[in-house]
Write a structure and sequence with these properties.
About 15% of the residues lie in helices and about 40% in strands. It is elongated. It is mainly beta. It has a seven-stranded mixed barrel. The longest helix is centred in the first third of the chain and has 18 residues.
Length: about 240
């Protein structure tokens, strides 16, 4: 009986250890950059099967421009949880490495982190990450007498959102199912690239920060088991629309 109790205590201790938050001594970013074997600014292209693939945009050390770097992550609380579309100063796949998020998966830049990286590297990161797509956002007509807007990306992807344009900061998001339902809170994604007939696509439209001049967010497209993410930062076109 005593042996069983001791085993239970050991097991509970092991599980509680994995659940604890990652603990490490914070270091000046410049020191972390100096000590990193691999250092670069890059964008996360894909995340699947416990691996994140980052594309190198700005070389610091140990890589070449355009190279793909695969970062493994497991179940530890020290592992960085990457998301496609994010942009990082990458120094390693764990938080103690000092890796710093520069842009989230909704196209929002973290200005304080951008300034910290500029100070540590002596040069500013480029203004846009590699996955950012430009375009426009403008009012449009809903299938009924209601509010709607249209996002037109430079790569030929178009999204219709059946809702009013709501200005927000980067702390909240609004997610719309692109199921084609002509109802408020839903939307539609179309692939209109290469001057071909527009094809409807399944997925979601996520709106991030929106102000009077720009809008940020992402369009996630589902095609069977495959997912494609388009992170956008578009200009708002102010114009009157008469529907009905």
């Amino acid at each position: 009986m005593l042996f069983r109790v001791l085993c239970l205590v050991v097991l509970l201790g092991a599980f509680s250890g994995t659940a604890e938050a990652c603990r490490y001594q914070a270091r000046p970013l410049a020191d972390s950059v100096k000590d990193a074997r691999v250092a670069f600014i890059g964008t996360v292209r894909t995340v699947e099967n416990g691996q994140a693939t980052l594309v190198v945009e700005q070389v610091v050390r140990g890589v070449t421009a355009g190279q793909e770097v695969v970062a493994d992550y497991g179940g530890s609380s020290c592992d960085i949880r990457f998301a496609a579309g994010q942009r990082w100063l990458y120094l390693g796949a764990v938080h103690p490495s000092g890796s710093l998020l520069l842009q989230d998966e909704n196209g929002n830049e973290l200005q304080d982190n951008m300034k910290a990286v500029t100070a540590a590297l002596g040069t500013a990161p480029a203004a846009r990450g590699g996955m950012i797509v430009g375009g426009t956002l403008e009012r449009s007509c809903a299938p009924w007498d209601g509010a709607a807007y249209m996002i037109t990306l430079d790569n030929g992807i178009t999204a219709h959102v059946y809702d009013s344009i709501t200005e927000r900061d980067n702390t909240t998001t609004a997610v719309y199912q692109a199921d084609g339902k002509p109802e408020r809170g839903h939307g539609q994604i179309l692939d209109c690239a290469n001057n071909k007939a527009c094809q409807p696509l399944a997925g979601t439209i996520t709106m991030g920060a929106v102000d009077s001049e720009t809008a940020r967010g992402r369009i996630d497209i589902r095609d069977g088991e495959h997912n494609t993410r388009h992170v956008f930062r578009v200009k708002r076109v102010q114009k009157q629309v008469f529907c009905g």
